[in-house]
Amino acid sequence: MTYDIIVTGLIIVAQILAVVVPVLISVAFLVYAERKVLALIQLRRGPNIVGPFGILQSFADALKLITKENIIPSGSNKIVFILAPIITMVLSLAGWAVIPFAPGWVVSDINVGIMYLFAVSSLGVYGIIMAGWASNSQYPFLGALRSAAQMVSYEVSIGFVIITVLLCVGSLNLSKIVLAQQTVWFAIPLLPMFIIFFISALAETNRLPFDLPEDESTLVAGFFTEYSSASFVLFFLGEYASMILMSSMTVILFLGGWLPPFDVYPLNVVPGVIWFTVKVIFILFLFIWVRGTFPRYRYDQLMRLGWKVFLPFSLFWVVATSGFLVYFDILPN
Amino acid sequence: MVLYSLTFYLFSSVAVLSALMVISAKNPVHSVLFLILSFVNASGLFVLLGAEFLAMILVVVYVGAVAVLFLFVVMMLDINFVKLREGFLQYLPFGALLGIVLVIELGILFLTDRSSNIYNNQTPLQPIVNEVENTKMIGQILYTEYFYLFQICGIILLVAMIGSITLTLRDKGGVKRQNIDSQNTVDASTAIEKKKVKIGEGI
């Protein structure tokens, strides 16, 4: 009896580690890739000293940051100040529990997988708000307020995009969502929704051109102005891990998850996890490309885009999709 | 089964304790954070019941949206903590009355026979696990039997929304608004005006 519990416990821990460790390592390489791609866009060289082609730069940076002194401002609310980066980090890793990397390769194959992902990504705002409030300083506070309004606004359109996909699948299970795309990836019939989802994902992860919570040119560093050393590393890791999480969510919803583009001989012998990784890397490249290309939005323009453009359009698309499915009687069970 | 009860006691005790902290914490922001903790634990209890859809909706709606706005407002307020404590005894009888009513109602709910549900004898209070996905079950009941109630809920929410908008909307006049369409349709012929300026005179 107790032996069984221990064995199951160990299996669960092993599964969690098998997901979390690769995610953290890929965060390190994502940071490197971002710096390298941005350097190429701006005709620079980027990191090229630590290791071959500077590939170990992120590890050197992490080591440097962790060995620095951790400063907690005397005016801050200490418990909340320390909790905020931990919450950000934990939430950005918690979402990985339901991501199917290949058929059956999932820690927890729950019925409401997509709802769980949506819930976890909407909780991400708490790390930022708590950090901004607990710092007891003007710039972080402004960053927190901006982020609270921004993330709540864009969640609404993300919710409608998810509903559109669910109408075409008939299940909230992520593996079933992927399997429903065997004939055609949802990115093709639902192309406008794919674009809206991608842009909302940029806003949800506070990436450029929507990185107003940490807007360097007006808010110093936004919500993490007062953070240093290890707590800063946690924010940094959390941001990039949630970037990868949102990319995987995009891949599962619109780009057919682990499925090959065509079910023909040389393509369908490649393992599903490789297709999944390739697609996630493609979306991440788009994230970096957008950062290197577009200027930052002004705050009122950001709100206008969320509420006056995306919300009505995605609402219309939900109604249109359900009308189409009902009229042609192809509603999935 | 041991693990199940352990998780149940963990979630329920944290939920109750954090609910207590909501009303006893000195700092209102801490109160809201404890409220959020309480919500999350309640959603954990829903998962244990097998109602995973309700659990996720609780997190998405209450924690992800309502509590964020709540926190937003509480953070912005400059609250005098000492003054806030003063009215405590004054409101105590009222609060106690509400509490007693709630306890009596819960007691009635637990003591009555659950099979004699007022709406339908076939729907038990607890979801049946492992039969159909409970998302589907909720849909099948909500959009058939409770359809009118569901619509009425929607209308109530709509009225509340319109009410709050009309209460806060004030057209002051003289506010310069950005018109994106007119900005986008600007071309050289409307944006630039050529003038011959005579030397020493200006426009």
Structure description:
The complex is a heterodimer of chains A (333) and B (203). Helix content of chain A is 68%, strand content 0%. By secondary structure, chain A is mainly alpha-helical. In chain A, helix 3 packs antiparallel against helix 5, helix 8 runs antiparallel to helix 10 and helix 10 (229-254) crosses helix 12. Chain A is globular, with a radius of gyration of 21 Å. Chain A starts with a helix and ends in a 6-residue tail after the last helix. The mean pLDDT of chain A is 86. By secondary structure, chain B is mainly α. Chain B folds into 2 domains: 1-114, Four Helix Bundle (Hemerythrin (Met), subunit A); 133-168. In chain B, 69% of the residues lie in helices and 0% in strands. In chain B, helix 1 (2-24) runs antiparallel to helix 2 and helix 2 runs antiparallel to helix 3 (52-76). The termini of chain B are far apart. The model of chain B is unreliable at 119-125 (pLDDT under 50). The chains are: A mainly alpha (333), B mainly alpha (203). Chain A binds chain B through residues 5, 77, 80, 110-112, 115-116, 118-119, 122-123, 125-126, 129-130, 133, 141, 144-145, 148-149, 151-152, 155, 159, 171-172, 300, 304, and chain B through 2-3, 27, 29-30, 33, 36, 52-53, 55-57, 59-60, 63-65, 68-69, 71-72, 75-76, 133-135, 178, 180.
